Amino acid sequence: MGDAFGKYGKTLLQICVIINNIGVLIVYMIIIGDVLSGTSSSGVHHAGVLEGWFGDHWWNGRTFILFITTICILAPLACFKRIDSLRYTSALSVALAVVFLVITIGISIMKLISGGIMMPRLLPDVTDLTSFFKLFTVVPVLVTAYICHYNVHSIDNELEDSTQIKAVVQTSLALCSSVYMMTSFFGFLLFGDATLDDVLANFDTNLGIPYGSLLNDAVRVSYAAHLMLVQISYPAFGMLSNSLERPLLSVSGSFFLLPLLLGIITT
């Protein structure tokens, strides 16, 4: 980066990546907390997976769950020197995303066949200036969806044949785009106007199909595990190892910055 941007440009770029990744990590940790420990929206409490299984206890509260996630999963995955070390967790994460998507599609098709789904709105309901500006809230979602782009250079450096990077990027974009579009389509088809900002919170209701409770838990657990393994570890890896280009910081920095990040989320 120093050759391309100079000394000060390199430092500025690193700072921007760190700030960006901290924000993304906060978002993902909030989602994990919502899925496992529950969340409240418009005065309605949506129980988390662990809360639904075991009831409300201190050890399945948001603070403790995020602490365990940070120390036992996020920090160790961010400590690897090479991004290639995340290949197995990446493969497992993709498989979990596919499980989440397949279950969502299956539920939608079953309810569509049984007549349990009403035709959702195809266009947004824009009635005033406020509702118009709400349309732009989708922009951060789209930007966050492709948050691992800064790792492309690290991946390129670790490839034996650097000409493969183009195919790697194209395949990744195609896979991610397909999963995102199908998830949004079938999620909105399933819940319609009742779709929450975090669609995972919708999966705590009675779906009106056999084994609905089991499928609800499978969807939320698979997506939470997906976030833990890759969506969180890649931004953390990029922030602590790739951006600063100091291998030791990926270890010592992880156990200092990530608990600090946890404190910001839970306060």
UniProtKB/TrEMBL annotation:
It comes from Carya illinoinensis. Residues 4-245 form the Amino acid transporter transmembrane domain. The keyword Lipid metabolism does not apply. One of its GO terms (cellular component) is organelle membrane. One of its GO terms (molecular function) is L-amino acid transmembrane transporter activity. Keywords: Amino-acid transport, Membrane, Transmembrane, Transmembrane helix, Transport. This is Amino acid transporter transmembrane domain-containing protein. It is a multi-pass membrane protein. The chain crosses the membrane at residues 12-32, 63-80, 92-113, 133-152, 173-192, 247-265. It is found in: Membrane.
